[in-house]
Amino acid sequence: MTNVTLLLFLLLIIVGCSTSPASVVHRDQPPNIRIKTHQVEVGETLYSIAWRYDLKVDMLAQANSLDRSYLITPGQTLTLILGNPKSGVSAPNQHRVLKGDTLFSIASEHGVEVESLARVNNLDSPFLLYPGQIITLDINKLNIVQRDTSQASNNRIPARQNTVKKPVYSKNLQWKWPVKGEVIEGFRPDKLQKGIKIKSSDSIVHAAAPGNVVYAGSGLRGYGKLIIIKHSDMLLSAYANNEELLVEVGQTVKHKDEISKLGVDGMMYFEIRKDGDPVNPLKYIK
User: Fold this and answer.
1) Class of domain 94-153+160-166
2) pTM beyond 0.90, yes or no
3) pLDDT by residue (tens digit) across 137-172?
């Protein structure tokens, strides 16, 4: 075999090896770990659980067939699977019945007459409802029915009705700083910083806006002693890393009321959430 022939033979071997693909081992990505249930612990409220998992409290209540009191008990297991959010939201002129709802409570909540609401929805006494049922609140239809029944009701004494007291929230919220100090960490949701951290020389924490206390405790990991205040159907605020809590669940607070005390380090973490989502507090407080 000549040198030229040998050289050609070696080149053919090299080319053949280079075109053979190397074997690849295919490995699927491991499935995401998703917490599907939560067992209620002592001191927890539905608001604190929704806060922990970044869920809307009304959707969490609906997924667990809870009535509007949002009452839960230690040891109770809650589902955290809310399903398709769009399917659980009623239209503006509708009410989706929750467990514990009555026609009287729905009428009281929306400021309409029970008799008119029953007639519009073709309900007969004793007005039995079931969870998931859609009650129409069409204002035009209700106004027509109320006008038709107003004359008939003028000559009789109205019956007393059971009503559910609903918290009254301010319609014109004015936010103020919960403490005086310097913002040392800003709002960075991409870095899991869902609020702001304030360094203060004053130990007293005030309510940033009027509302109702829906959580006061230390059950949320990473928040220390925490207070959550509900300011409207959409807005909540949280005050974390407290040394002492001065309010209780169910308590109504006014603007600038003292709600807690900070520790000696004067460090406070503050959040505002709108419709379940964290928002930049600096766009609200002045």
Assistant:
1) alpha beta
2) no
3) 776 666 554 444 444 444 443 433 333 345 666 667
